[in-house]
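hiii so my PI (J.) wants the whole complex modelled not just the main chain, which honestly fair. so below is everything: two entries, each one labled with what it is. i double checked the lines twice but i was tired so who knows lol
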Amino acid sequence: MQTDAMDLEQQRQRTAAARAAHWQRTRRLTGLLLALWLATGFGTVFFARDLAHLSLFGWPLSFYMAAQGASLVYLAIIGGYAWRMRRLDREYALQAGEHA
Amino acid sequence: MNHAHSYLQRLSRYYLWYAGCFFAFLLALGMLEREGMPRLWIGYLFMFATIALYATIGVITRTSNVSEYYVAGRRVPALFNGMATAADWISAASFISLTGSLYLRGFDGLAYIMGWTGGYCLVALLIAPYLRRFAQYTIPDFLAARYGGGAGGRDHHRLVHLRGRADLRGRPDRVALHRRRFLGRYFPGPGQHPGVLLPRRDARDHLDPGGAVHHHPGRLSDPDHVAVGEALG
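here's the output for the full assembly
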């Protein structure tokens, strides 16, 4: 009985630790991608004059970003997020010892 | 497991059939255009064929079960849900109104293009993790789980209303440009640019991601917004 209770307690702690680690990683990823999102959408337009000397595929950087680049970056953000979260969720399921 | 597997296969088969038929239809229209069929007729054919297809799918998949109706019994695999979201992204209404806004506003119209996709990032980053945490399937489900049953429906209603408003802002004038070209006639509306065809309620229902039913008796009588694209796709 004693060992059963200890096992249960250990299991609970392990789950809690895994959950905390998972959530921290999720938040870090979210913060990183949000910063990228802000730089892409707001940064390139707000600082368009400062970035005017840069060009991409023959277009001014800001114009290219607004017309096409931003959408591609956004798509990459969503894709990268989905891919990474899938892995994080799997790791969590393994660590927490849950069948998910 | 086996059951789920066969379900996925069946779903993939339907989608492949649909995609195949759609491409065949496009090919047929292209050939008809080559043979000299008038453009106006091609336009009508495309529109009515789309509506007929939509109606057919509706009849085939009809159900009287509420959860089947809104979220297909929560059985749609992630990949197919993603495809539906992608289709929503570039639905005819979005496409028409985005190109229209570029035509009208030039560079400034690109703000819509950026915001359109950028919004999906926010949904993924800021809402999806909480949906997963609460193990919910739709935003109204999440709100109900998070804030209690009654509030969920009401807030969701408000959310959808907001989103619908944001989505439709500035759309009518842009859509009208295209509609004039496409159908060759005006549908003048009260106090609006002539881009008006259906009551606002229809458009908002169409936009509603969760498919909740709206009751705005007062609103039904003021047909001021819509997108002909909603009827197209």
